[in-house]
Amino acid sequence: DLIAGSEGTLGIVTEAELGLLPVARATISGVVFFRTADAALAACDAWRPVPALNMLEFLDGPSLELLRPRFPEIPHGAGGALLIEQDLGSEADLDAWLERMESAGALDEESWFGAEERDRERFRAFRHALPEIVNDVVRRRGFLKVGSDYAVPLDRGREMYEHYRRRLETEFPGQYVIFGHAGDAHLHVNILPESGEQFERSQRLMVEFAHEVVRMGGSVSAEDGLGKRKAHLLEIQYPAAALEAMRSVKTRLDRHWLLGRGDLFPAPA
């Protein structure tokens, strides 16, 4: 537990033993479309307890618009979507999705479902196309990617999304997407700046978001790590005494500060 999440600053992993899970007898996957992002997030809250659910991913309206040139089959009335994947125990599990979609007000006739491996891969490719397109847009505009990796407690997920959307509509209307792991209340914000001034302002907004996430009891790094570019966020989440304790552990395990130099903490003079 000490090494995990330390971003290579405390040790080097030379060997790992993995435990494998059995392959599911059958799996259903799909992309469920909704008229609004709010409806999609409401469905996410309702579906989170579904047993054997492996995926519950969210795409907002701007995300779908960014994807539409590559995937013109996206329904025109869609303003949000959820990607789901569930290991099936019986036919009843399959039938239950029709009831869930109807209850949630999903665009059931226009949503995509499949039970084959090729369907699962097609839907995952659809999901992963979004960050690829974002990276391409930002790169062509000549900037580094401006994105968040924040997460909040499950009961604050909708609140965090509303804060993101409200501030982004004020500061960067038409220049952002919100997507990601809604099942874990871990949504990514990506801003698409068009000028140097916007790039600087987007970085300040990400810091503002970090303060809000911490206020809600969340984390400034949920899966991707911080590294050199985002190490300053540690000071938002942890008090000075905690940061000093981290540096002490680093010195204890890596006396000469040889590992991950400059990551998270600057090397002592």
How would you describe this protein?
By secondary structure, the protein is an alpha+beta fold. It is 42% helix and 15% strand. Strands 4-1-3-2-6-7-5 form a seven-stranded antiparallel β-sheet, with helices on both faces. A hairpin with a 4-residue loop joins strand 6 (176-181) and strand 7 (186-191). Helix 5 packs antiparallel against helix 6. The longest helix has 24 residues, at 117-140. The model has no long low-confidence stretch (mean pLDDT 94).
Specify the helix fraction band. Answer: 40-55%
> Which secondary-structure class do the elements indicate?
alpha+beta
Largest sheet: 7 strands, antiparallel
| Number of strand elements | 7
Proportion of β residues? 15-25%
User: What spatial order of strands do you see in the largest sheet?
Assistant: 4-1-3-2-6-7-5
Number of helices: 9
Whole-Å distance between the termini? 29 Å
The geometry reads as globular
SSE string, helix = H, strand = E? EHEHEHEHEHEEHHHH
- Which value, in Å, is the CA radius of gyration? 21 Å
Average pLDDT, to the nearest integer?
Answer: 94
Low-confidence stretches: none
